[in-house]
Amino acid sequence: MFRSIAIALLLLSVALPARADIFRCTKKGEDIPLLANDATVCKYAKSGWRCRRNFTIGAKKSLKPDCSSKRSTVPTATRRRPRTDGPKKTYRAPAGDASVYEPIIQKASKQYRVPADMIRAVIRVESDFHPHAVSSAGAEGLMQLMLGTAKSLGVTDSFDPTQNIMNGTKYLRQLANQFEGDARLILAGYHAGPGAVKRFDGIPYKATERYVRKVLTHYYRYRSSER
Description:
With 227 residues, the chain is of the alpha+beta class.
């Protein structure tokens, strides 16, 4: 069971030049891993957390966060809605073969500053890497996009692996900006919709809690396998 601490995940806007780095913050025996930019880490530092940079994506930087950084204006994420129309489609890529989609995952990770391990974990739980998966609620494709979400992101075919992964990752970035980097709320918003998370001021349903735990479990497994 995961500790009840905030595991922060800040996914930066495409236009934002700052990098997403991996920090480790400690306070009174608690230990929080953060994947964030300096501005977000500085919020924890002001609250008494001692934060130190463990790894930098893209370039070497000082171990201490640069607290002169400014927060960006964040976009509003779109609530997911069920899809009720549209034909089912299939693609030649082998269902369940994660390696087929790795180039797309890497591209999405770089473009939207989302850890590739998080993208893989979401896909694993959502569709088990089946590109033509359709849920009972009408969610489609590898990252199980709903009609409203897909339309708002500019997706024309949710069963196209490239469109699905790129825009599913973009949606994760929007949620991350909206929920200020809290990975549990990001994933809860992806599962239940950001509106439900806001109304309940946290994870709204038992099913959503289970979903969040599953995704984080796979996320840490993927991270561990790369060490």
